[in-house]
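We store chain and fold; example below:
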Amino acid sequence: MKAPNARLEVAGIDSVILRLFDFIDEANMPWMLAARARLQEVFGGALIDLVPSYTTLLLHYDLCQLDSEQARAKVAEALAGLQPADLQDGREHQLPTWYDRSVGPELQLLARRSGLSEAEVITRHSSHAYQVFALGFAPGFAFMGLVEEILAAPRLSTPRKRIAAGSVGIAERQTATYPVVSPGGWNLIGRTPSRLFGSDIEGYSLLQPGDRVRFVPIERAEFIRLGGDDSPLEASQ
C-alpha cells in the first residue's frame, strides 16, 4: 500500500493542516489513523487538539512549547516511516434502525430518484458496514461512508430547523445519525433508538473514527421497546 503524499498547510498562528489525500476514500482511513496516533505520540503534551477529517488532520499546538518550525519538524518526524494502521482493531457497532416514512420522510424520495422500491433502498443501505471517517457538525455526529452511488442524494435545499435525535440520513455518498436534536439538511430515511452521545460514554461519543457501523432494520414495536421516540417530525418543530 503506497504511502500518501502529505502536504502541510498553515491554518493559524498555532495550528496547521496536514493534508494526506485529495479525495474521500475508505482506503484513506488506515493512513489517517496511523498518522493521528504518531502525531499524538510525537507532540505529546504540546498537542492541544487533533481533529481528523476525510482527508486531513488539523493540529493545534501549544505556542509556549513549540514554534512553527519546531511543529513542522515534529510532523515530519511523525510521518517518517509511517505504516497504515490495522483496521481490525476498530470496533463494529450495530445500530437498530426503524426505516419508515413517518421518521424518514425522504425514504420515498430516494426510492423515486434511484428507481428502487423503498424496501430495496432499506436493503441496500443496511447491507454495508460503513467506515466512520470523522466527528463534527454536532457533538457525536459521525460522518460515515460510503453509501452506494445509487443511493447518493444532495442535501435538502432548505435545511430543517429541528431533527430528532437518532434520525438516520444520507447526504451525497455519506450517511450519518443525528446524536442530538439539531437542525440539519440530510435526507432522512429512518431512526435509531441507540444513544450516541453522553457524558457517561467513553470519549462522550459512541462512534469514533476508525469504527465501522451497520444499520440493522427493525420494526416499530422493537424500536419502541428499545426506547425509541416515534414522534413525527412535525411534532418536534
